[in-house]
Write a structure and sequence with these properties.
The protein is α/β, with parallel strands linked by helices and 256 residues long. It has ten helices and eight strands. Strand 1, helix 1 (18-26) and strand 2 form a beta-alpha-beta unit.
């Protein structure tokens, strides 16, 4: 397949992280043909920093000033898809850094898989909560289903992505994408031998908020309440259940 690749970085006020992220992309042993930064209503120096770092490279900054979809990240990715080139569409979260061989190792796997993700690990050097989350991530080793592919560190076949209609307006765009790919017979993969670093400094509040969103996403994806309860117990994520119940309530109000 054509291994020319567009790398997409979605950012909303990420001035503290985006420089390291973009520099890790520019340092790839296999260079992307285009880098797209989708700046989602940024009010800080994200856009200025991105333009400075990318000034000598082929890049595009999409400055979004309003939301047309309910879920911003899904909309940002679809906007970028319309501008992408090459055979592969790579997604790197703005608060992550990738190893130099990220593209070199993942792109060739698109010959067999429609989407391939790296393993994201929390940076324990960013504070106490990060250290706790980093330790918690070890629970993936003992869960029945293991770790599933994560959204912001993957490469996707653009051709296959186009065949399923691109990204949809959902909370968990990554799980939704993987489910739709599997329904077409395409294969998706998590490559546990390749690790990327999630550098965001976490707080108890942000961790709880993330769990609540994950719970809402599970409801939207049609995961059962029983399975969600087991997930919350075995993975020590109580706020996932709260988010799931909020999703149930929101669906009930919409139906009324």
């Amino acid at each position: 397949m054509n291994l020319d690749c567009t790398v997409v970085v979605c950012a909303r006020n990420e001035e503290h992280y985006i420089q390291d992220c973009l520099e890790s992309i520019l340092g790839q042993t296999v260079q992307p043909s285009l880098i797209i930064v989708v700046a989602d209503k940024c009010t800080d120096r994200t856009v200025e920093t991105a333009r400075r770092i990318l000034r000598d490279f082929s890049y595009l900054v999409i400055e979004k000033t309003e939301n047309r979809w309910k879920n911003s990240i899904s909309e940002n990715l679809e906007l970028a898809r319309g501008k992408a080139t090459g055979g592969a569409f790579a997604i790197v979260d703005a608060d992550m850094t990738i190893p130099r061989d990220f593209l070199e190792r993942l792109l060739p796997q698109l010959g067999e898989y429609a989407s391939v993700s790296a393993l994201a690990k929390t940076d324990p050097a960013r504070g106490l909560v990060n250290r706790l989350v980093s330790f918690w991530e070890r629970t993936y080793r003992v869960t029945l289903l293991g770790q599933q592919p994560r959204g912001g560190v993957r490469v996707i076949s653009r051709q296959t992505l186009g065949k399923i209609g691109g990204f949809r307006d959902v909370i968990a765009w990554d799980s939704d994408l993987d489910n739709r790919l599997r329904k077409t017979g395409a294969k998706v993969k998590l490559d546990p031998t390749l690790t990327v670093l999630h550098r965001r400094k976490m707080t108890l509040r942000s961790s709880a908020s993330y769990q609540i969103q994950a719970g809402k996403a599970r409801k939207e994806l049609g995961v059962s309440l029983g399975r969600t309860l087991l997930h919350a117990i075995f993975r020590l994520r109580p706020f996932v259940v709260y988010g799931y119940l909020k999703g149930m309530k929101a669906n009930g109000l919409q139906e009324e």
